[in-house]
Amino acid sequence: MLQLPDHITIKTAAPFVIGAYIGVWLIATLYLSVLDSQIVKLKRELSLLSNKASKERSLFSLIIWITIATIGTAIAYFVFTYGSTSNEGFIDAMPIAIYLYIAIWTLSFGYLLYIGRRLFKLYGEMQSLSKTIGSE
Amino acid sequence: MSLKIGGFYFYLVTAFLLTVAGLIGTFFLTPLEVKQIGFSQKIFYFHVPMAATSAVAFGVTLLGSIAYLMKDSKNLYRKAIRLTKATAIATVIAFALRITFNVMGIEVLGGIDVRLILLIASISLITLVPVFWFFAFLTRENMDTWASVGAEIGLLFGSMLLVMGILWTRVTWTVWWTWDPRLTSYLLVMLLYSGYFVLRSSVDSAHQRARYSAALGIVSYIAVIFTMISTRVLRSAHPVIFTLSDPGVESSMLITFIVAMFAMIALFGAMIIVKVTINNLREQIEDMKDQLGG
Lengths: 136, 294
Prior knowledge:
The structure holds 2 protein chains of 2 kinds.
Chain A lengths: L9 H41 L9 H23 L11 H42 L1
Helix pairs in contact in A: 1-2, 1-3, 2-3
Chain B lengths: L2 H27 L14 H28 L4 H29 L3 E2 L2 E2 H23 L3 H33 L8 H22 L3 H28 L17 H41 L3
Antiparallel strand pairs in B: 1-2
Helix pairs in contact in B: 1-8, 2-5, 2-7, 2-8, 3-4, 5-6, 5-7, 5-8, 6-7
C-alpha cells in the first residue's frame, strides 16, 4: 500500500521536478542530435553522388556545450538556493522551473528549425539531381 | 514551397505560439495546488500532453499499419470510401446510444462511464475519416515509413513521459516505481513498441518486414487503449482528472492544459514530417546509387 505524504513541500518536490525537466532535456537533445547526424550523413552521400564536396557538420558538439551550460546553471542555482527554500513558498522554485522550461523549448524549436531548414534544402538538391540524372 | 515544407513550418510555428501561451498559463495564470501535491502538480501541463501525444503517435503507427495491410490486396480508394461510410454509421450509432442513455438516465454500465466511452468513440471515429483519405494517397512503402516513424516518435515521447512520471511518483507516492495498472500497462506499451523495432531489424525482406511490423503495430495499440482506460476500469492510485460530468480542474487549468496538449501534438506534427522526409530521402539516395551502379 502506498503511503502518501500529507503535504508535499516545495523543498521535497523541487529536486525531482528539476530532475524531470533535465531528463526530458537530455532525451529530446539526444533524439534531435540523432536526426542531425542522419542529415549530415545523407548530405555526404548526396555530395558523393553529385561530385561536390560537403562541408556539412553536425551541431552535436555545440549542443553538448549548451546542455552542460544549461543543466550546470540549473543545478548551480538549485544548490545555492536550496538551503533558503521555504517549505511553503512557490516562488523559490519557480525561476528554475521556468528557466528549464524555456531552455528545453528554445533548444527543441531552434534545433528542429535548423534541422528542418537543412533537410528541405537537401530535399530540393536531391530532386534537382534526380531530374539531372533522369535527363541524362 | 511544397506541401511537406509548408506543413513543417505550419506545425512548428503553431507549436511555438501555443507553447509560449502554455508557459504563461502554467506558471502565471493557473493556481498552485495547495492541498496535497503542491508545486509538483505543475507537471500536469507537461506530462499529460506528452501521454496524449505518444498515443497519437502510436495511433499513426496503427493507421499506417492498417492501411499497409489493406493496400496489400486491393485498391485503397474504394476501401477508404467503404470505411468512411462504415465510420459515419458507427458514429451515428454512438451518438444515438449516448442520447438514449442520457434520456434513460444510465451513466454507468459494468463500472464504466458509458457516456464518456461513447463520446470518446464518436470523436475518434470522426477523426479517422480524414486519416483514411490521407493514407489512400500514400504509396505502400510510404505507409510503412509513416507507421515506423510514428512508433519511433511515440517511443521518444513515451520515454520523456516515463522519466517525468517516475520522478513525480517519487515525490508524491514516495517510491520510484509501483506496479500500478497505469504504470505497468504503459511499461508494456513501451516494451511492445521497442519490440516493434527489434522485429523490423530482424527481417531482411522489406515487404515481409513491413507486413510483420504492421501486424505488431495493430496488436500493440490494444495495450495503448488499455492504458488509457486502466485507471477507470481497475483500482489505481494514478490520478484521474477528467470525467464527463466534471472537468476536475478550474477553467484556467483546463484551458492551459488544452493549449499545452495542442502545442505538443503540433510539435509531433513537425517532427514526424522531418523524420519521414529523412527516411524518404535515404531511400531515394539508395535507389539513385543502384541506378548509377553503386
